[in-house]
Structure formats: C-alpha cells, structure tokens
Design brief:
This protein has 186 residues and is α+β, with helices and mostly antiparallel strands. The chain has helices spanning 27-35, 39-42, 135-161; strands spanning 2-5, 8-12, 16-23, 50-56, 63-69, 75-86, 90-97, 109-118, 121-129, 172-174, 180-182.
Length: 186
C-alpha cells in the first residue's frame, strides 16, 4: 500500500511503515518541531485528534510522553524512550500506546526519523517498525504518518509565511499550491 498527498509519501509492507516528505525549514527547525512541546501546536487538526501535555527528556535513555485528545474529548496516552539522538539529523525512539489500541494494542514499536537538508528545506523520512503480524496496524499507521507529515508541512509553511521568508531558498519559486520548486540546475 502506497499513499501520496502533496509531496508526502507513506507505505507499509505489513511489518514496517515508511513515510517521507519535503518539509519547509532547515533540519534544526524540523527537529525542534518533532521533540519539543511545539508538537502540540501542529500535531492534529480541528476535526481530528490533537496532542496535549507533551513531555520529553531529550537524551539517550530519556523518556517522552504525550496525551492524544480525540475530537470527542477522549484522552489517549502514549509514551516511549529515546534510543538515539543526533541533533538535528536523527532520532530513534520507542513508541507505545498506554491504552488498548484497536489494531496494535500496547505493543512497543520503534520509529526512526532521518532529517536531511535539501535545497528548499528538509527531507524527513520515518521508518516505523515493529508491526510483524499486524498488517492492519501497519496500514493504519502509514495513513497516520501521511496525515502527520502533512500537518507538519502546513505548520512550518505557515510559520514561513508569517515572517520566516528568509529561510526560503534564494532560487526557489512558489507554485500555485504554495510549494517551492527550483528550476533546472546548471
């Protein structure tokens, strides 16, 4: 299964989820959006879930936790541990729901984030493993990562429009959809 939306790609092979997107902003900014309470400002939408009470001890072996508040007001806690941190290039962390998720239960999974600078921002690639035997959970999480990366793109793009234009690549041109493109390279 491959999902694609506005330069976001996500797929699941039954055991592992891969998702990738071009994020407008340098790796340092994207890294901060992923591991600080800034996540509460962009993760979710008015008609879906949102994050509250983000907390992280940003060091190898440090714990993180968050509460996902559903659109109907239900609080769903999640948590994990940071296994690797190479700011602003790489994060590896465990993840688990602290409630009985319908397709994953409380199984611990591992998500690795790779941030690579590009001419127009950061290529963020996520490899989320630990779904062996849970094909439905993997497919559901691929859809989720596609939404999440779209929210992150929109958040950082809105920040740029609100005064961070200096972070745009000098040769970049905006398309009608607002995406940045570079003309052919010499």
């Amino acid at each position: 299964m491959i999902l694609e939306q506005a330069s976001v790609q996500a797929m699941a092979n039954g055991e592992t989820v891969m998702a990738s997107a071009e994020i407008p902003g340098p790796p340092e900014q994207v890294f901060a959006a992923l591991v600080t309470d800034e996540v509460e400002r962009w993760w979710g939408s008015a008609d879906s879930d949102g994050m509250i009470d983000w907390s992280a001890d940003l060091r190898v072996g440090g714990r993180w936790s968050v509460i996902v508040r559903t659109a109907d007001g239900k609080d769903l806690p999640a948590s994990g541990e940071f296994l690797e941190i190479e700011a602003p290039r790489r994060i590896v962390q465990t993840r688990r729901y602290d409630w009985d998720h319908p397709t994953l239960g409380r199984r611990e999974t591992t998500a690795a984030y790779l941030l690579e600078p590009t001419a127009v921002g950061t290529r963020l690639t996520i490899c989320h493993g630990g779904f062996a035997g849970l094909t439905e959970a993997a497919a559901e999480h691929a859809e989720g990562w596609a939404r999440v990366l779209g929210w992150l793109q929109a958040h950082l793009d809105a920040g740029r429009a609100g005064g961070l234009a200096h972070l745009r690549h000098p040769r970049a041109k905006r398309t009608r959809s607002g995406a940045q493109t570079l003309g052919s390279m010499p």
